[in-house]
Specification:
There is one protein chain. The chain has a ten-stranded mixed β-sheet, sandwiched between helices. The chain is α/β, with parallel strands linked by helices. The longest helix is centred in the middle third of the chain and has 21 residues, at 155-175. It is built from twelve helices and 20 strands. A hairpin with a 7-residue loop joins strand 19 (409-413) and strand 20. It binds guanosine-5'-diphosphate (GDP), 6-O-phosphoryl inosine monophosphate and magnesium ion (MG). Magnesium ion binds at residues 12-13, 39-41, 299. The site of 6-O-phosphoryl inosine monophosphate has 23 residues, from helix 4.
């Protein structure tokens, strides 16, 4: 058996949902460990399209147990809506295939309101958050004010914890010139949603412990990507959780010894939603072409994604931080028909070559990409199911990426559909 931790190696939207759904064919459990409904994961199965935010991307596979770990911040109303919307598509979600951590923290309406207000006030220096309240919810968790899933079992606890949390928010909101929070309305909404959430509440750490003893395959599903990580990302233009592989364990209660393989997921070019440095960004016809062919519009907010060449220096750093054993390379088909393709191999900062992007925001903004140029290909990779069907130049591009990022490509995705996936190695095999 083998447990796999799958994480994004760029700025999110690498195609994690597609790859996790694909791998879930061999998984017993798929578990989310961080983030919240800032994530948007699109799964295409035959002619059906599923858009997931909070539920793990194994949820549409019959027989797979979906878990949401304590590292995730859960908006209970959004979770209920997502379950109902899947139900309307014929995917049944019940206690038999979903459990959420009793010790996970909740996102409340005041979190999204604060998120949006801060962004408005920041003007040009805004982060470009998804406005879902992710940052404020994690702040309250770390500030020891959060309401957790298990708190929903007692009206008295809900009231006490809500009072404490809202006292803090009332002060913050006053400073921003916002109305006082409507405590009664939030309290009543929580009472109403509580039974719909509590039915799924379980000690997830225990389920994972038992799964290990029963030799089950567990797939840990990361959201966002390495350069949105709170520590390793392009701070402050990041999300508020740790998106790297190590957090798969603190975010779930699984032991680090449960790690068999880390799979990094990487797009064949780069995209980013929201503000922040992006050295290989293309503000020209090539960038527009990538956006158009790659359909680079955000799943969650509908915003256009910024596009650019693959930044192999960044991806190499991401592979090292997460200890990636293998990479799933997605969207190679989007490059079909380009006459030449560039890969960022490092940076020029004030005339000096730098192998990695430095942490200082000022230096990141001044970093100019240093490129290698490879020939493109005219024959399509789109929908290819076998390595032998790929044009030689696309294989040369993949081999060059492997050399630069110092990690082998073991899965290749050639279209959005589940079946347009080439497996070079079955990752669930005994390591
Ligand atoms: P995630 O957040 O990492 O799960 O990625 P998203 O689902 O937000 O964005 C990836 C988008 O690319 C989705 O619309 C997928 O359907 C699509 N996609 C995934 N793999 C491929 C691929 O190999 N080729 C193409 N053309 N699209 C892909
Ligand atoms: P998936 O899982 C791409 C970005 C936002 C913003 C920054 C902070 O689909 O890859 P937040 O709302 O988290 O406080 O926003 O992070 N962001 C994402 N970008 N994909 C995501 O998730 C993202 N989740 C957050 O655009 O720049
Ligand atoms: Mg996404």
């Amino acid at each position: 058996m083998a447990n796999i931790v799958a994480v994004g190696l760029q700025w999110g939207d690498e195609g994690k949902g597609k790859i996790v759904d694909f791998l879930a064919a061999d998984a017993d459990i798929v578990i989310r460990f961080q983030g919240g409904h800032n994530a948007g994961h699109t799964l295409v199965v035959d002619d059906r399209v599923f858009k997931l935010s909070l539920l793990p991307s194994g949820v549409i596979r019959p027989g797979v147990m979906s878990l949401i770990g304590s590292g995730v911040v859960i908006d209970p109303w959004v979770l209920v809506d997502e379950i109902e919307s899947l139900d309307s598509m014929g995917i049944a979600v019940s206690e038999r295939n979903l459990a959420i951590a009793s010790n996970a923290s909740l996102i409340l309406p005041v979190h999204a309101e604060l998120d949006i207000m801060r962004e408005e006030r920041a003007g040009k220096s805004k982060i470009g958050t998804t406005g879902r309240g992710i940052g404020p919810a994690y702040e309250d968790k770390v500030g020891r004010r959060a309401i957790r899933v298990c708190d929903l079992a007692s009206e008295k606890t809900i009231r006490q914890r809500l009072d404490g949390l809202l006292e803090h928010h009332a002060a913050l909101r006053k400073g921003f010139g916002m109305n006082a929070p409507d405590a009664r309305r939030i309290y009543e909404s929580l009472l109403e949603v509580a039974p719909k959430i509590l039915r799924y509440a379980k000690p997830i750490w225990e389920i994972l412990h038992d799964a290990r003893n029963s030799n089950m395959n567990v797939l840990f599903e990361g959201a966002q990507g390495t350069f949105l990580d709170i520590d390793f990302g392009t701070y402050p233009f990041v999300t508020s959780s740790s998106t790297v592989a190590a957090n798969a364990f603190t975010g779930t209660g699984a032991s680090p010894s449960a790690r068999d393989r880390v799979l990094g997921i990487c797009k064949a070019y780069s995209t980013r939603v929201g503000s922040g440095p992006f050295p290989t960004e293309l503000n020209d016809g090539t960038g527009n072409r990538l956006a158009e062919v790659g359909r680079e519009t955000g799943t969650v907010t509908g915003r256009l994604r910024r596009c650019g060449w693959l930044d192999a220096a960044m991806v190499r750093q991401a592979c090292r931080i997460s200890g990636a054993d293998a990479v799933a390379l997605t969207k190679i088909d989007v490059l079909d028909g380009m006459s030449e393709i560039k890969i960022g191999v490092g940076y020029d900062i004030d005339g000096e070559f730098r192998e990695f992007l430095p942490p200082l925001a000022d230096e990141q903004a001044r970093a100019r990409p240093v490129y290698e140029t490879l020939p493109g290909w005219t024959e399509p990779t789109s929908n290819a199911r076998r390595l032998e069907d790929l044009p030689a130049n696309s294989l040369a591009y993949i081999r060059r990426i492997e050399a630069l990022i110092e990690c082998p490509v073991k899965i290749l995705s050639t279209s959005p559909g589940r079946d347009a996936t080439i497996v070079l190695d079955n990752l669930f095999r005994e390591p």
